[in-house]
Amino acid sequence: MRGLIEELRHRNVFRVGVAYIIAGWLIAQVADLGADAFNAPEWIMQMLIILLLLGLPVALFLAWAYELTPEGMKKADEVPADAPKDPRAGRVLNLVIIVTLVVIVAWLGWDKVQGPGSASIAVIEKSIAVLPFDDFSPDGDHSWFADGLTEEILNSLARTADLQVASRTSSFAYRGTNADIPAIANDLGVAHVLEGSVRRAGDRLRVTAQLIRAADDKHLWSETFDGSNEDSIDIQETIAIAIANALKTAMDPEELERMVSAGTRSVEAWEIYLRGLARDHQITQQMDIANATEAIDLFEQAVAIDPAFADAHLMLADLWQSQVDPTSTMYIRDGLSMTERREHYNAAVSAAVKYARSEATRLEAEMRAADFDLRLMDQIALAEQMAELEPERRQSWAWLNYLYIIVGDYDKSRDAGLKAWAAEPEPGTGNATIIQSMHRASLTEAVAMVDEVLAVPKPSVSELYQSHRALLAAGEIERAAELVTMYVPQSKDDEGIVMVQIRQACAEGRVGDADELFTEIDPDSNTRWLFLKTLGRDVEARELLSALETPESLYALSAFLTYRSFEARDFPLLWKTLTAQRINRPEARPLAYRCER
């Protein structure tokens, strides 16, 4: 035995084995980092480890069977027993072992230094991301329901005081991804992930949900719910409560009630409401105005089923407001008279106040009533109270961003706009809404927002529209021209397409082209004033609005206050209403990109 060990040492078998094991470990560590970085499948690492293990006996056999001599590599059997040993073999192996050990020590030292820092960035134990539920319905046509269910669970959990919930935008970015749960949780900075699926066929509903702890990829809770469509709210509530219990969140009964609140106890009303939100998203993000009537009809159906559905009344108030505002891009000229539109608007606002689910929603409804009555300072005070109650909510700051423009307080508008931009998007207050107001308050900030929007692969149509206007106002004409080529093929708003083309033509000095484009616009267009101002035909624009200088049409006239190029002093009745509230707007200034005549 002693002779065998001496022979193994003599042939450097031990050194080769030690060098191979150390180098193999280092190779495995580096490969593991690379696999994580490129989201490589697990079988690649498994295959590498198997190859490294199989290579060990091969390396040992080669060390036994061959020797390095002064004449080169030879079979050990062919080397005489008294032949001198080539010292290079031992030195090379010693060098390999020493260098590899130094690298490993440095590696472990770096990892130890990094470890505590990572822990201090500390993923909070009571934290969760709710991934969008998959739609496994036979026809795959219920993604809207799956998204709605996901959002309701997410919103319910977000109301829990001591539970940190990843934002909807962050969570929904992982729709359809192949990344594993620990990787997603690491990216989102959460300790737990909820994933699930929805299957609807006829009146039958199946919802599967599972809560996973990212640290060890362990399922803490999972459940499959079978029932009818009438059971969907109960399922949503059950999932939210089960998660809260699993994460041991501290919730008193009042907090629990807020968590499970879906806004209505009627499943039918709730599902119609979700469809209405989908249509509203198409309107605001894609400028698909054709959906405005359908969206109103859906929310009207929801409140007909559940008259106390405050959130649906608020959405109706928002939509009907666009129908009493001739400057709105969603204004539909045909159909109901202005008197009938006002009646619908007033009814929606009154119901939203009556059935408000919280102080914040009551303030929002009262703010809309103040808007219609042109009580602008009251409206600002109510919006400021909303922002104080819910400082993390985007809508409150977006309203202030807009209202401060109306009264000419551009510094406050800028500050409110920045807070709105930092908050999570919500229905009716997307990025385009903020850019629209911000480019009138601070062009520098507006262009910075445009840069963020255009960094996303597919900006919405409304984002392209407002970004184009902001870039022109900032004098970035060439960049704006690029957006025209992106906007025109996507937009379903014919007048919006012509408006964008006229603005670009005026900014480039092509007045004749702009005038030619204007011939395509309906003489009764509700946005004709803005076309005329862009074309530099200010006198005609002023005369066009003269018909609105009546007490009955004053609200419609006030809608033009959002434009800094609108001179309120030209309309005595409107100016009197403003000065009575101690509002002294700065004098109008011409559009930066208008046609010069």
Explain what the structure shows.
The chain has helices at residues 2-10, 13-37, 42-65, 87-120, 143-158, 168-172, 181-188, 232-246, 253-260, 267-286, 292-305, 310-323, 338-354, 359-372, 376-389, 394-407, 410-422, 431-441, 443-454, 461-473, 477-490, 494-507, 511-518, 528-534, 538-544, 554-558, 572-580, and strands spanning 66-69, 72-75, 127-130, 134-135, 164-165, 192-201, 204-213, 218-228. By secondary structure, the chain is of the alpha/beta class. Residues 112-121 and 250-260 have low confidence and may be disordered. Among the domains are: 2-120, no CATH class; 127-262, TolB, N-terminal domain (Rossmann fold, 3-Layer(aba) Sandwich), CATH 3.40.50; 265-373, Alpha Horseshoe (Serine Threonine Protein Phosphatase 5, Tetratricopeptide repeat), CATH 1.25.40.10. The strands form 2 sheets. Strands 3, 4, 5, 6, 7 and 8 form a 6-stranded mixed β-sheet that branches. A two-stranded antiparallel sheet has the order 1-2. The longest helix has 34 residues, at 87-120. α16 (394-407) packs parallel to α18 (431-441) and α18 packs antiparallel against α19.
